[in-house]
């Protein structure tokens, strides 16, 4: 992307109802500084208002090298807590907002970069992507929600291994460990993420909201409570005017039927 403005930390563009949010600090491998996280926060709010789905990607050769380490040399403990809580709020705006987020991952998906990717709903990695959690080597700990989100994706055993031993996972290992749902050839993650985002943008907004917000919360409940909540979310979603129209469209043969993967 040669026409990307150099002074914009996060690029933004909406096409066909999909917001494209680009991490744009390639000279520092998209490391997340305080200013960077504020730029991301503003862009997340804008995407929520203007799009039905969003794609998050990195400009340059890497998705994101995590926390900007140069800003953390002099921080006090309470400043560290405030910074971490700010990341939590911004990433939660992605994870528990109203639109689906698809991330396109390539190169380094490291530390806070992996925490950021973990807050998106679908992750597409290209074959150049690699995952690492070098916090132990840097003398720090995850602070962007990784101990909750990333640990739930890959499990505590794998995450402990990565944090304790510095193990680096390839794109394929990341897929097997649930860090990515798709692996595509090098250079194709953004196109695949855009394709998936357009599909998600075509869904009923309330269904997408339920997937994003009800599904993860139900995992935190007992089975009894989960089934109880599911019935309410299900009934509320299915009786919305948009659902009524979509159900009619199917019955009147105006909607596409589902195809076997071999037919696509
Ligand atoms: C940075 C950062 C950064 C690069 N903070 N400046 N994250 C890490 O421990 C990852 C550290 N970075 C790396 O291991 C490598 O930079 C990469 C594998 C990501 C990319 O390697 P490469 O060879 O393409 O780039 P480079 O030459 O290492 O870096 C280019 C420049 O980016 C260089 O600055 P320059 O002024 O010398 O040109 C690097 O210093 C700079 N740079 N990464 C600051 N992270 C809320 S808790 C979250 C906790 C974490 O995220 S811990 C993980 C931190």
Which secondary structure elements does this structure contain, and how are they paired or packed?
Elements: E1 10-15, E2 18-23, H1 34-50, E3 53-58, H2 77-95, E4 101-105, E5 108-110, H3 112-118, E6 122-126, E7 130-132, H4 135-138, H5 149-154, H6 156-165, E8 169-170, H7 171-176, E9 182-184, H8 189-201, H9 205-219, H10 223-238, H11 241-251
Parallel strand pairs: 2-3, 3-4, 4-6, 5-7, 6-9
Antiparallel strand pairs: 1-2, 7-8
Helix pairs in contact: 1-2, 9-10
The structure holds 3-methylmercaptopropionate-CoA (MMPA-CoA).
Structure description:
- There is one protein chain.
- This protein is α/β, with parallel strands linked by helices.
- It has 2 domains: about 10-200, 2-enoyl-CoA Hydratase, Chain A, domain 1; about 205-250, Lyase 2-enoyl-coa Hydratase, Chain  A, domain 2 (Orthogonal Bundle), CATH 1.10.12.
- About 45% of the residues lie in helices and about 15% in strands.
- The protein is built from 11 helices and 9 strands.
- Strands 1-2-3-4-6-9 form a 6-stranded mixed beta sheet, with helices on both faces. It has a 3-stranded mixed beta sheet with strand order 5-7-8.
- It is globular.
- The two termini are about 30 Å apart.
- The model has no long low-confidence stretch (mean pLDDT about 95).
- Bound molecules: 3-methylmercaptopropionate-CoA (MMPA-CoA) (1HE).
- The site of 3-methylmercaptopropionate-CoA (MMPA-CoA) has 23 residues, from helix 2, strand 5 and helix 4.
- 3-methylmercaptopropionate-CoA (MMPA-CoA) (1HE) binds near residues 66 and 84.
């Amino acid at each position: 992307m040669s026409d990307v403005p150099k002074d914009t930390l996060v690029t933004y563009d909406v096409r066909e109802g999909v917001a494209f949010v680009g991490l744009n600090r390639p000279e520092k491998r998209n490391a997340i500084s305080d200013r960077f996280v504020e730029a991301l926060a503003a862009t997340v709010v804008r995407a929520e208002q203007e799009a039905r789905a969003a794609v998050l990607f990195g400009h340059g050769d890497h998705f994101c090298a995590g926390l900007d380490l140069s800003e953390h040399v002099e921080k006090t403990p309470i400043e560290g807590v405030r910074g971490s809580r700010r990341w939590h709020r911004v990433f939660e705006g992605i994870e528990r907002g109203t639109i689906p987020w698809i991330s396109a991952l390539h190169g380094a998906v490291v530390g806070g970069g992996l925490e950021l990717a973990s807050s998106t709903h679908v992750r597409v990695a290209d074959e150049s992507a690699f995952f690492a959690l070098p916090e132990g080597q840097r003398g720090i700990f995850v602070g962007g929600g990784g101990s909750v989100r990333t640990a739930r994706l890959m499990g505590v055993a794998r995450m402990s291994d990565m944090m304790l031993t510095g193990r680096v996972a390839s794109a394929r290992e990341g897929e097997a460990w649930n860090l990515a749902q798709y692996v595509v050839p090098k250079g194709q993650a953004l196109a695949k993420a855009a394709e998936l985002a357009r599909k998600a943008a075509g869904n009923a907004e309330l269904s997408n909201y339920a997937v994003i917000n009800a599904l993860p919360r139900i995992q935190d409940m007992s089975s009894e409570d989960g089934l109880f909540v599911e019935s309410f979310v299900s009934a509320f979603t299915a009786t919305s005017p948009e659902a009524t129209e979509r159900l009619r469209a199917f019955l009147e043969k105006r909607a596409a039927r589902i195809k076997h993967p071999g037919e696509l």
